[in-house]
Structures are given as structure tokens and as C-alpha cells.
Write a structure and sequence with these properties.
7 strands; alpha+beta; 126 residues; 27% helix
């Protein structure tokens, strides 16, 4: 699967909405392609008191729930269709789920694909 297809999978679950007066969801969506060829998606949940989580975390949780943890590719898409690089927390989180995830390809912009290792140049494990 190429990044264009992965982009469309992520964009298909974008659904910005208010959950309550203190929470909103769906302003960012992510898609993860696993070693077995499965795609998992997720959306962010933002809360007033910062107990939120990113779209990449939601997609990773779905992946782990289904017994997988090796990510080949991932992408995040904002509400305007813009590609977004993962935050530092997401980079670190994905890298710890499987030893080979440091080689996960991440589209950070339309013309830029980097590995998690490139996004975490001073890895604490080395």
C-alpha cells in the first residue's frame, strides 16, 4: 500500500465534533499500515484538562487490540486535509511497540517521508 492510499484511509475517518462541553474529537486522524498488511485508523480526542490522546495513539491501540505491533508506515491528517508529522510523544510511543518500528516510514509532508529513527535522532536506548 502506498502513502496515497494510506492518506485516504486516514482522511476517511476525520469527523471533527464536540463530544461534550469539555471534549472534542476527530480533528486529526491517523492510519497505520502493519507488517501483515492491515490498516488501523484512529482519531484524536482533546479534553479541557489535557487528558487527551493523539490520533496515532488511537490507531496504535486498535492495532495492539488486534494482536499486532509492527508498523511499516503511518500518516496523520488534519481537518483541512493537511499531512501532519507525529508529535514527540507519538514518535516515542510507536518506537517502543516493536524493535523494528524505528524503521517505520512516516509521511510528514506531501514530499517528505522519514523513519521514526530520523525523527528521534538521539534515541535514549542507544
Amino acid at each position: 500500500m502506498d502513502f496515497e492510499e494510506l492518506y485516504h484511509k486516514a482522511a476517511s475517518v476525520l469527523n471533527p465534533r464536540e463530544l461534550s462541553e469539555h471534549a472534542q474529537a476527530g480533528t486529526v486522524a491517523a492510519a497505520i499500515l502493519t507488517e501483515s498488511g492491515n490498516v488501523y485508523t484512529g482519531v484524536c480526542i482533546d479534553t479541557a484538562c489535557s487528558m487527551a490522546f493523539c490520533a496515532e495513539h488511537a490507531a496504535a491501540a486498535a492495532m495492539v487490540t488486534h494482536g499486532e505491533n509492527h508498523v511499516l508506515k503511518m500518516i496523520a491528517v488534519g481537518r483541512r486535509g493537511n499531512i501532519m508529522p507525529p508529535c514527540g510523544r507519538c514518535r516515542e510511543f510507536i518506537s517502543q511497540l516493536h524493535a523494528a518500528n524505528v524503521e517505520t516510514e512516516v509521511m510528514v509532508d506531501r514530499d517528505t517521508i522519514l523513519t521514526i529513527k530520523e525523527l528521534l535522532p538521539h534515541d535514549w536506548r542507544e
